[in-house]
Every structure is written in structure tokens, then in C-alpha cells.
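Margin note: ligand = pyridoxal-5'-phosphate.
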Amino acid sequence: MSAAPELAERYAAVTAGIAEACAAAGRAPEEITLVVVTKFHPAQLIRELVELGARHVGENRHQDAAPKAAELADLPLTWHFVGQLQSNKAKAVARYADVIHSVDRASLVTALAGAERAVDVFLEVNLTDDPGRGGVAPSEVERLAEQVLATERLRLRGVMGVAPLDEDARSAFARLRAIGERVRTIAPHATDLSAGMSGDYAEAIAEGATHLRIGTAITGKRPAPH
Ligand SMILES: *Cc1c(COP(=O)(O)O)cnc(C)c1O
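Resulting structure:
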């Protein structure tokens, strides 16, 4: 079965948008990993995305992601976990997730230390003024990075952030980029930057994003969560 025409059109529009934003920023599109966020969508949609060329998918809930990853084990996919992660589910997520973008606290790093295989991680930074939001406070990032570096199972890739709704995305991503540069002083290999969603990926590319997490611009409207 081939992919629905609207899906193909949206996928093409986003890849063209990425190429355009890269050209404007003087960057090569090969520097960018496009993670298609498929949360709430059925496994079949992911099969269609793979036909269109997608190789990275992102999910945000373990109970949805685990069965999809099992069902699609035949596909050439890298699985990214982008949602808030409870420590008691960390080991289970690490069985199928190759990359976890939402490491934001010491207890989660401790839980992931018991993973059965190596996992790549991003430190999620809280870019809002609300300490109740997900993400480590900017002032705590180095401490968390040190803990990840001391954990054998984990490979630190860089930092991740979501632009606050009440701030210009470009300035939020510039702050994230600067935090990533601080992390690089203690972890020179942690050069990746996970930033940019459907509405702000061009701004993220302008600020050096290497991993875009794009959902609705490609998948269309999400079905209601069940
Ligand atoms: C859902 C989600 C995305 C994708 O959002 P869109 O606006 O649909 O592109 C990206 N990152 C995270 C952490 C998400 O939960």
C-alpha cells in the first residue's frame, strides 16, 4: 500500500522547508536529522512515512510507543522518545528507544543506568519561567551532564528544548544553543541540538538545530489521545 497523497505532500513541503531554512542559514541539509513525531497515530502511518523516506520517528508515551516499535521491528527506523519519562518506565523505554530527548533529572539518569543496552540522550532544558514545566533548570544543566558522563550506558548527544509560547522562538533557541555550548566545555562530543517543531523549525535551524521534532506539519492533525 502506498502513502496517502496528502501525507506525501506534507512530507515534501516540510523537507523543502528544511532545505530552504538551511540555505538561508548557510547550512547543509545533511546536518539535520528529521524526527517525525508520530504520537497518537497508528503504526500504519509510520509504514507510510518510511515509504516516503522517513528514518527517524518520535513518540512521547511508553504505552503507545512500545507496541508500535514491536509491530514495526522490520522497518529501518531509529526510535526517539521525546516525552516526559517516569523513572519506573525508563528501562523499558530504553529497550526500543535509541535516543531519549527528555532526560531532565538525576533520578531518571540513575534509572537509565540500569538499561540493558546503550542509549543516546539529550538533556531537556526548561526554557520557560515555570519550574513546573518539564526540563532541567538552565543553572543545573552542567551538574546533570556530569552525571550522564559518569553513566556507562548513556551517550550524551547535547541539549533539547521547546520554545515557550510567550517568547520569540529564535531568542529561546539562541538561549538553548548557548546552554549547549556550556555543556560542550565539559563534553566536547555533545554537539547536537534538538530544537524546532512544526511551527518553529526554521528558527531552530537558524540557531544550529541538528534534530528537528516535527509532528502535525507532516502527519496532519493528531487523533485525540485515548
Ligand atoms: C508533540 C511534540 C512535538 C511535535 O509537535 P508538532 O507541533 O506537532 O510538530 C515535538 N516535540 C515534543 C516534545 C512533542 O511532545
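The first helix runs from residue 5 to 25.
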